[in-house]
Specification:
It is built from 10 helices and 15 strands. By secondary structure, the chain is of the alpha+beta class. The strands form 4 sheets. Strands 13-12-11-14-15 form a 5-stranded antiparallel β-sheet, with helices on both faces. A 4-stranded antiparallel β-sheet has the order 7-10-8-9, covered by helices on one side. It has a 3-stranded parallel β-sheet with strand order 2-1-6, with helices on one face. Helix 1 (17-28) crosses helix 10 (285-296). The mean pLDDT is 90.
Length: 300
């Protein structure tokens, strides 16, 4: 089997640790795997059908493509090569539209809420005129301010008062012609959340992430501590429902515990898994490769 990884990291940087780990697993299983840079792809429209060139030459023949879409800006435009591969009938894990849904936190919230999947109370604004109303609607300050396209904890700020919220939004220009999400601060979570890793219809592993002192974000990239956990049936059910709701095949679902029970903070379409493998000792990469192979065979 010829497997491709479509990396969205800049050309000047090395492939992500996850991409290299997937290559290691694929080679050990007897498959070929090549890492491609999305910035080196050229989309060709010349009346001869959808085509992709790579560094000026016809894209190599592969059986399945696994995108590592680490992007937060110009999402639709930057995902265009992935859509082109799908138009060429190439199996892709994850596909264009599910990634686009997950990259937009507001769209994710709309979909999950409409299906009754528990989420924190949230108000989306396109300006600051109704900021006070929004803060009151989610239970009052402190509140979480979110850029719908943030990632790795960036674009997420806590505001202790209404005045602070207005000041932060003014300083960052969020809310001035741009959507901003005002979300309740779930204090009882204690800066902890649970990352549940899903592949297909299975929960592969889970870990608890704990924010550093004086930090409310638990992201590993921001220094959050990690602990291996056994994912409960309740959390597994929510994670699988969230993944299916967005149409994803590989996802990292972030869940926190509130007074009303677990709620979904985010569904990640490009979840890192090196830290998860390290803390749990569970092989996460192999199920991803196995799923991609099964997709080519029409088994999923």
């Amino acid at each position: 089997m010829k497997i491709g990884i479509l990396s969205f990291r800049p050309l000047r940087k090395k492939a992500s640790k996850e991409a290299l780990r997937l290559r290691q697993v694929a080679l050990a299983m007897g498959h070929k795997l090549q890492i491609f840079r999305v910035d080196s792809c050229q989309l060709v429209y010349d009346g001869r059908g959808e085509r992709v060139f790579y560094n000026g030459k016809k894209f190599p023949k592969i059986d399945v493509l696994i995108p590592r879409a680490g992007i937060i800006n110009n999402v639709d435009l930057r995902l265009a090569p992935l859509k082109q591969f799908q138009l060429m009938h190439m199996p892709v894990v994850n596909e264009y539209m599910p990634i686009a849904r997950a990259k937009n936190k507001l769209r994710t919230m709309q979909i999950l809420h409409s299906l009754g999947i528990p989420t924190p109370r949230t108000v989306a604004l396109n300006g600051l005129a109704s900021l006070n109303m929004a803060i009151d609607a989610v239970g009052g300050a402190p509140v979480i301010l979110k850029d719908p396209f943030g990632s790795f904890g960036r674009g997420v700020v806590i505001a202790e008062t209404k005045r602070a919220a207005k000041s932060v939004l003014g300083m960052t220009n969020l809310g001035f012609g741009r959507s901003i999400m005002i979300q309740e601060y779930v204090e009882e979570s204690g800066g902890r959340d649970t990352r549940v890793f899903v592949v297909g219809d299975k929960v592969i592993a889970g870990m608890e992430r704990c924010a550093q002192a004086e930090e409310f974000r638990s992201n590993v990239e921001l220094g959050g501590a990690t602990n291996a956990i056994e994912v409960s049936d309740k959390y597994a059910k929510i994670a699988l429902a969230s993944t299916r709701a967005l149409g994803l095949e590989v996802a990292g679902v972030d869940i926190i515990e509130s007074k009303k029970g677990p709620v979904v903070l985010e569904v990640n379409a490009n979840p890192g898994f090196k830290a998860l493998e390290a803390v749990t000792g569970i092989d996460v990469a192999t199920p991803i490769i196995e799923y991609a192979i099964a997709k080519v065979a029409g088994e999923v």
